[in-house]
Amino acid sequence: MTAKDILSIRKSENSPVSNSQVESEMPLLDVIPRLLDSKNRELTVVEDGEELGIIDQTSLLEGIGRMIAARDDCSVITVECAPEDYSASILAHAVEDSDAHLVDLFSVPGENGQVKVTLRVRHSDPTAAVRSLERYDFHVLEAHSSGDNIQSMEIATERLLSLQALMNV
To answer: Percentage of the chain with pLDDT > 90?
Structure first.
């Protein structure tokens, strides 16, 4: 996904021009820090010297949301490992050894110099994937099956509908 894929406002005669600019083909992950560093939290997207439109925080969030595939049959597993032991291919192999598919993988620096990795696994029960990850010497911090999320998803949906009602007042 690139900058031109997440435009929130198309160029018009009356639209104000942002001081910060990015090229239309800039990858979304490179756009994020630029948007956060811009004074007014907006970026003008240009292609061949012509302004295409503006990216704001809302369009960025929507773009990130489109990057994450919605799946009801996924479990979420969080593991931790030393940076020298981190390998996305080994994690994927461990998951696939349990007859599941790796949907997403997100890594962030953890505590004590460790790497914390969140995996979405296409399987409603994460037990087999957890055992496989542990056989590969990954420390599993937590695991949630898709069934665990039904009640929390209902609560979140109810809260979002309430927020929407308040915002429309």
So the answer is: 34
Q: Which residues are within 8 A (CB) of 3 and not within 5 positions of it... i.e. 6 or more apart?
A: 22, 23, 24, 25, 26, 28, 31, 43, 45, 55
Contact 123, 73 (CB under 8 A): yes
Closest CA to 78 of 139, 149, 142, 144: 142
User: For residues 18 and 40, is the Cβ–Cβ distance under 8 A?
Assistant: yes
Residue in the block written with tokens 């990858």: 27
- Within 8 A by CB and 6+ apart from 15, the residues are 9, 54
pLDDT digits 0-9 by tens, 3-19? 777 777 665 445 555 56
In 63-138, which ranges are E strands?
Answer: 75-81, 101-109, 115-122
| Predicted model pTM | 0.59
Q: In degrees to the nearest 10, what's the CA dihedral of 169, 154, 107, 97?
A: -160
